[in-house]
Amino acid sequence: MTEIVSTEDTLGGAPRIKGRRIGVHHIVKRVIDAGEPPEQVAADYGLDIADVYRALVYYYDHAEEMRQVQAERQAVPEGLAVVRGPEDLTSKTRSEPEA
């Protein structure tokens, strides 16, 4: 079974499977949030099933850290905005581009 590591230069320091760019949050999103079978996630990522379960154990054992990772992943970078519908657009961005 591969260990879970965090390095600042990979995935922004988010916990991941050692030797891979597959974060714990990637596995959690698919298995817990989307309800996909762990076996399918392991096959899709080319992982041992034990690696998927290790990532899930890490998620539950480090709940506060994972909440922070998820919050950072959902944060909108400064200078950008989330547009959910036409009401979020200014009149300038709604107008036709100049020719």
Describe this structure in words.
It is a single chain. The chain has one domain (4-94): Winged helix-like DNA-binding domain superfamily/Winged helix DNA-binding domain (Arc Repressor Mutant, subunit A), CATH 1.10.10.10. Helices cover 47% and strands 4% of the residues. The chain has helices spanning 24-33, 38-45, 49-61, 63-74, 91-94; strands at 4-5, 16-17. It has a two-stranded antiparallel sheet. The longest helix has 13 residues, at 49-61. The chain is globular. The model has no long low-confidence stretch (mean pLDDT 85).
Compact summary:
This protein has 99 residues and is mainly α. The protein is 47% helix and 4% strand.
User: Biggest sheet: strands, sense, closure?
Assistant: 2 strands, antiparallel
Could you tell me the mean pLDDT? 85
Gross morphology: globular
CATH topology category name: Arc Repressor Mutant, subunit A
Provide the CATH top-level class: Mainly Alpha
- Cross-sheet strand order for the largest sheet: 1-2
Estimated structural class: mainly alpha
Taking pLDDT < 50 over at least 5 consecutive residues as the criterion, the unreliable ranges are none
Q: What is the CATH architecture annotation?
A: Orthogonal Bundle
Q: State the distance separating the first and last CA atoms.
A: 58 Å
CATH superfamily: Winged helix-like DNA-binding domain superfamily/Winged helix DNA-binding domain
Roughly how much helix do the residues carry, as a percent range?
40-55%
Helical stretch tally:
5
Query: Approximately what portion of the residues adopt beta-strand conformation?
Result: under 5%
State the assembly state of the protein chains: single chain
How many domains? The number is: 1
Count of beta strands = 2
What does the radius of gyration come to?
Answer: 18 Å
Written as H for each helix and E for each strand, in order along the chain, the element string is EEHHHHH
